[in-house]
Amino acid sequence: MTDFKQLHIERPIDDGQALTDDDLYWGPLSNSHPTTLREYGPVTTINIAPTRQQWISITDSTRVQIYSPDTLSLVRSFYSFKDTAYCGTFRSDGRLVCAGSKDGIVRVFDFETRTQLRHFKEHQGSPVHCTYFSRDKTYIFTGSDDRTVRVFDLATEKQLSKFDHVHTDYVRALTPGSTTNPHLFLSGSYDRTMKLIDRRISNNDNILMNFDHGDQIESVLMYANETLAITAGGLYLKVWDLLGGGRLLASLSNHHKSILCTGFTCEQNYILSGGLDRHVKIYDASTFRVVHTITYPDAVLSLGMIGPNDRALCVGMPGGLWSVKRRDGSQQKSNLSSTITMTNGYESIKIDNNNDMITSNSSLVQIDDESTNDTKSTASSGSRKAKSRRRFFPSGIVTPTTTDPIATANRRPRLAPYDNYLRKFRASAALDAAFTSALKRRQPDIVLALFKELLRRQMLKQALAGRDDLSLLKILRYLQKHIAHTTYMPVLIEVAHLISHLYDFSTSSSDKNNKAMEKLQRTIHDELQFQLELMKTKGAIEIILAASTTSTLMETNSTNYHNHNNNNNNNNNSTVISTM
Fold first, then answer.
1. What is the per-residue pLDDT across 405-442, written as a single tens digit (0 to 9) for each?
2. Mind listing the domains of the chain with CATH numbers?
3. At what angle do helices 469-482 and 489-502 cross, to 10 degrees?
4. Degrees to nearest 5, angle at CA 545 with 539 and 551
5. What is the pTM of this model?
6. How far apart are CA 484 and CA 496, in angstroms?
7. WD repeats: which residues (predicted)?
């Protein structure tokens, strides 16, 4: 007996365009179910440690908290702040954490012991919103609401430089230079300017470049190779060429509310921006075009990408929530072991996912991964208990090998309800089940696929005949909604033609069905008028193109004729001259 061939459901793309490589790359991350955690206040900064562990630093309220990227469990907490904390960031080796605060004190903590190692009070009570380590791990760059940018030495706990003439408004954005130029950094301010500063120059000449963003700057970025810089603020994200003298390369305005944060992906192939419009825009770093958009339930205050391969996106929101979207949609599996308990002719076996060992009461056998793929049982992170199996070994413990034949169960796939009815040749019940499935999954193409199958089997009339008012109303509304779609039109025209012959709506007692049929007629009439206008436009365009082609040919022939006459005249003149 052969298996029943399930209904093939085509997934049409509404915009008529094929999916791009960027859609395929960002689709799994965008469509995954997010993991959401709640903090005590707005999540103003998310910073990912540039180390192998990639700890997640969350700055909210009066604390900086560190989370594991795999389990999202709390690893460290720093509570030494008397007022709101800002911009908790890691040093490049992940051993130190610095953060500013509303009381103007910059604090430095040891990550392992959570001890406060340094504190700098030079900002004198003005809120410090920006704190970053230099790439050579020896300095801290800070930006404050006192309109100054300062550089502190970690070793001596002293202020090295103070730049009080650089900006005329709050400094809300900083980014340090690369490891090759650790003395350079970018600063952005509410005075609408970004400055490229060299900390080694103490006089007024320390401003190497000046950039006018045109709006209050909330975030600045610099490429690792120091070729390009990015400013974000207001509705615009702008890209500047550092090697080309600071010229503007691109001005992007894809947000419809203010941009609050920006970031790079792990390989700096894409640029991320988030704002008050609840969107995270993803730009191609080479073309500066938006390739994907992710929507969130609240404004986006901060964001960070976890590598490798951009496997997770963290986003902070003002309501105290922060969200993590992963590509696989699930958390990492924990290394739990599953135990199989057997008695009366069964051996006791323990399967350990870490060491790939089989342990019995009498022996310890090392086996390879390929031979145990059918015996391992995986457990989800912490919540699912280890499952037990029972297997009979007549001669005690048996060591599986790679040459052993494996018997696989040939199980039939589970059929959908409409497939079950089709298998029993119950066309009307299959159509009702298809409408139910399409409503649950929000996939109208299920009904379209069933209509096609019923047409192929010549059972469409049987499925549409003898229906009550409620089921007929579902079909009429479906036709009215989708008949103008180019993908649905050829099939739904046949369905509408059959319904008009099977039912007489002039004598129908259902007002809803009569109104639905009138709407369907108006939809068909409007579509016919639209097609007629298109045909008229097409005819007019063809006339214009034909006239243009004719005039071009006439001009070409006229030019050739004149050239021919000129050649003949030249030949006649040369003949006369030769005879003279």
1. 777 666 677 888 888 888 888 989 989 998 888 877 78
2. 21-327 (2.130.10.10), 417-528 (1.25.40)
3. 150
4. 135
5. 0.59
6. 12
7. 121-162, 252-293
